Structure prediction request, 481 residues.
Amino acid sequence: MTVPPFLISVDFYNGFTLIREESDQTDMYFKTRNRKKMSAVAAVILTLSLILSFMLSFALRALCAVPDTSAAEAVYLYCIDNGILMYESNSEKSVSPYAMVKMMVGLIACERLSEKLDTKITITSQMIAGAGQDKQMKMKVVEGEVVPLRDLLYGLLCCGYNDCATALAIYISGSVKDFVSLMNLRASELGMNSTQYQNVIGTESGSARTTAADTAKLALQAAKNELYVEISSTAKYVLSATNKSSEIPIYNRNYLVSEYPGKEYHRNRGYYNSDCRGLCSGDSGTSRHSVATLAKKDDTSYLCIVLNAALTDTKIYSFSMVTELLNWTFRQFSYKEVVKEGENVCKLPVHMSDVIKETDICAEKSISLFIPSGDSDNIKTSYRLNYSSLKAPIEKGTAVGYLTVTYNSQTVTVRLVTSENIEGSKFLYTMNSITEISQSRVFKASIVCMIILSAIAIFIDYRIRKKAHDQIYLRHKIDDR
Prediction:
């Protein structure tokens, strides 16, 4: 530590005065130095706070930002329970269906064959003729092999095998051409007006088209079919031994629901997502990959579709995109209780009570809406009452109207009820009864009748009296004569 020069020049012979002056200067030196230290520390803290705030702000923006979906031709993210379209990109764009064709094949097969899964069929040359040349896309059934329909369904929905698709199509319709017609008819029934199928294996065809919005309609229907969801969500299945082969395990190629250990394992970079189930995945053979899947989080179900996303030797963008979109949704959206059970909404006047002149009207049940974090301004609340006032006695829970809460397309309505028991006043009730009776038509008619009858009685009495008087007068007159 450097000693200030004025400390060296202290004259001990001049006594206390000089020492005190030098001491004051020393105090001033240390105070100045401490202030500089404190200023430096404050500057460092302020700088770190600014850096931390910037980093936190950047991180929050990154968390709130919608994931990049530019690597896909079309994307569709939908909340099934609430009917809300969470996110879409080019959802009406016409694209080639590729692997999504097999979702329609599988849906029709599950609808038609659910009671015949143990039925065994013999593979014909026609059933395997149109399966293509890609050996990885075949279960490798051979002519004359006897195979259960169940195994063909698992081969189709777990692995997307082409020979399973053609075998099922011919078994159901007699020919692939007739089955394709059935596919297009089913698409029309589901309202898939922008979809046209040309084959059952998803190979390139100029006239075969669909959209992400149409694919969502198909996926929603598949999601309702328990057999379809069960099969397409199975991670591993063992094919039965047949007259041509022994038992063979197969693994689901939808990496969201299974870790596939086959030749393509080098491409599986941790895509597994425990929130996902089924429905369909596959590539186009042109460095494009598509996936449609169900997801469930906190008792809320979602549907996510990514069509024709980029596919490389190191990354399958469709799988990672699904997880990113779902995680974004889970962070951004949640159920929020906007009205609590028993929460006071308004008041109503009360008549016929000695004590209570008005009572609270409350919500019979709580209301929760699925909304993004921090977006409460768009929630609209309205209520309708069936009465302008109430008359005691009143029981707690008496329905008096309705409360409606709306957020975008979500609308929830609950009953409005009274919040307490209210006893009536016997005196006021009696007086009110008298008042009501006196104001009733019957009472008024009775009074009118009484007046009329009284008038008639008076008139009759008058006539009788007058007649009697006249007779007495006449008799007196006769007697006077």
